[in-house]
Amino acid sequence: MWNQLSVPSGTLYAWDPTSTYIQEPPYFKNMTMSPPGTHRVKGAYCLLNLGDSITTDHISPAGSIHRDSTAAKYLMERGVARRDFNSYGSRRGNGEIIVRGTFANIRIVNKLLNGEVGPKTIHIPTGEKLSVFDAALRYKSEGHDTIILAGAEYGSGSSRDWAAKGPLLLGVKAVIAKSFERIHRSNLVGMGIVPLCFKAGEDAETLELTGRERYTIDLPSSVSEIRPGQDVSGVTDNGKSFTCTVRFDTEVTEFAYAFAMDFSCFKLNPIS
Question: How close are the terminal C-alpha atoms of the chain, in Å?
C-alpha cells in the first residue's frame, strides 16, 4: 500500500505552498557559512513587560487557536473553516502559524497594558494597542529592534523550542529577566537572542523601568570578547542606566551564528 502512494521525485522535499500545516522553515533562507557576529542592541523598544513565572506555554501556546487571533485570521484568509483550526501544537510545522501564536496565550499579563489580561501590547511610538504579532511586525517594518522585560523564572515549564524560535521571528534581540529556566535560556542563545539577568536585588520595578523607554545594551562588538557571566551596561533614552549579566553558559560561538542549526551546519562543513 505504501509503495502505491504517489510521491514527488528529486532529492529535496517539494513544499506545498497551499498547505497550512507544513511550510518551509524560514531560518535557512539567509544562512551563510560565515558567522554574522553580534547584533548590537541599540535604541530597542520593549515588546512586552512581563512578570514572574512566564512559562513556555505563555510564550508559545500549544492549545486551541482562538477565533480572534492573528493565527485564526491567517487560516481564514486561506479558506480554513473555524471548526478546522485545530491547535497550535498540531500546526507547529508551519512557522507562519506559530510566529502568530507567539505570546498569544489568552492568560498572559503585559505590564504595558496596566494589568490587562490577553495577548496584546502597546506600540510605543504611537501608543496604539495591537496584537503582539502586529506590533512586532510594525517595529520590524520601521527598522527597530525589540527586547522583552521579565521577572523570575522566565521560560519555565516544558522545553518548547518554539518558545525561542517564535521571539526570534518576531525580531526580539534580548530578554532581560531576574532569572531564566536553564533549558529555555540555552534555547534563546541557540536562536541568537541574548539572555540578560538583572543584578541581584534588582529588577525592572526597582530600577523604575516601565518598558516605555528605548534600550541600548553595550554588548561587545566582537564575539571573541564575549564571556559567559560577564557584566554589560544598559541605558535608556530617558537617562536611566543599569548593569546586567550575560547568561551565556554554553559556547559563545553558537550565539555568533544567531541560529543553532547554522552552527551545526558549520561544524559539519567547516570553512577551511
Answer: 47
Decide if 101 contacts 69 (C-beta within 8 A): yes
CA nearest 18: which of 89, 80, 72?
A: 80
Burial of 53 from C-beta contacts in 10 A (0-12 / 13-18 / 19+): middle
Strand 146-149 versus strand 172-177 pairing type? parallel
Number of neighbouring beta carbons within 10 Å of residue 174: 25
List all residues 6 or more positions away from 31 whose beta carbon is below 8 Å from its beta carbon: 259, 262, 265
221-225 contacts at long range (C-beta below 8 A, 24 or more positions apart): 221/37, 221/38, 221/40, 222/37, 222/38, 223/35, 223/37, 223/38, 223/252, 223/253, 223/255, 223/256
Sequence-ordered strand ranges (E) for the chain: 41-49, 120-123, 128-131, 146-149, 172-177, 194-198, 214-217, 231-236, 241-246
* pTM of structure: 0.88
User: What residues pair up with 246 in beta bridges, in sequence order?
Assistant: 196
Give pLDDT tens digits for 147-193: 999 999 999 998 889 999 999 999 999 999 999 999 999 999 888 89
Which has the closest alpha carbon to 158: 15, 77, 61?
61
